[in-house]
Amino acid sequence: MYRVARPVLKPLTSNLFGGFGGPLLTLNRSKRFYSSKFPSEIELDGQTFKTDEWTNVPPYILELTKRQLHQDVNHPIGILKELVETTFKDMGYTYYNDFKPLVTPFQNFDVLGFPQDHPGRSKSDTYYLNKDYLLRTHTSAHEHECFQECKTPGYFITADVYRRDEVDRTHYPAFHQLEGARLWSQEDEDWELQMLKDIAAIPQTDIIVEDPFRENKTFNSENPKQDYMTDRQCELASLHLKKTIEYLVNQVFENARISAKLAGSTEEYLNEPLKVRWVEAYFPWTSPSWEIEVWWKGEWLECCGCGVVQNQVLRNSNLGEHKFGWAFGIGLDRIAMLLFGIPDIRLFWSLDERFKNQFVQGRISTFAPYSKYPGIKRDVSFWLPPDSQLHVNDVMEIIRSKGGDLIENVTLIDEFLHPKTKKTSQCYRINYQSMDRNLTREEINKIQEGVEQELIENFNVKIR
Ligand code: PHE
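^ thats the input. predicted complex w/ phenylalanine below
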């Protein structure tokens, strides 16, 4: 999401990392947000917040903040988190798991050097309680305080994060990230020896690595080293970072392979060696920066963003001039979908015992679908008034607010501009499907009516 330099449109299914990439980038419409009637105050965690013109977080999203799926050792997200924590046990990391999702724009954006006009700050992308508080959009929001607090060379943070986004099988407005970071000090006379020792301590893997940016090619003018570091420091920090992530990916995907085989799968890809590649990226608070992609079931999965932390973040955290190191952020939900064979991201939030009872601490098992109920397809078509500020994410939000987890996916299937009236017409297709029961025509009609009503009231559309 936070790559600003090279926004590329990729198939949604090949993004494991929680990024944007859907219709949002193609429609190029000015960004406004959907502001329904919000109460004058919102309660969260016993605190009261006065709403204002920034408020856009609906009640169903606030409810999700209470779930804390990553803290449940018998839930796929919690099991995956534990697998990673066990992998890095005794390697110098502190684990943080209970940061609350409410943060300030300072924590989520400013301290990390996001420019004022970065799209991530907009109300169409981010849930705001009011202008001073928002639901974190990434675990990097806690880098600042962890750098200040942490007594070990590195740390891991796992937490729920929130983004307004499209609606489909792999996107949900709430998901989970795991952040890692590690530092060394230029004031340590033996920094080079220490770094070499730390690198050697990362277990070797059999992964096939494609990396055009290794060793003396670590940085270049497009993806630069920071001036305060020596070439060697930048090279070694990058090598430690990449080996750490390769080891993490290896542990996770080897487990996915084992569990798929145990579940009886004989698919060809399970016998191929694991292959990853590094690509250059851009994040406002790291330089140089990369992403790792994993070759899995015949496609490259974008998996994790990372880089060498910029000095300003460390100085802002009162660490002085001489620390240097790396950070990464990895999305857990889509990896857990692969690992546990879970076909739809909504299932993680299911309260159905038939889902929850299938998983136990420490075990990666393959999900057994309990049934597939038939879905219902419905369209919503309307004319927008000229100069309308309606954003695709606003429509997604309205549909999700009215239909909740009965919404399987929503697609903008048609859009055209009337040459004479200059009015735009849009048609969205909604697939309704429940995980645990049959739907009735009446309940779907009611949702459709609610969606249309909301669109009329808030955006003055004309239903077709
Ligand atoms: N927070 C970034 C994201 O969600 C990922 C990231 C973490 C990148 C740490 C660099 C360093 O897009």
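Residues 373 and 437 are 6 Å apart (CA to CA).
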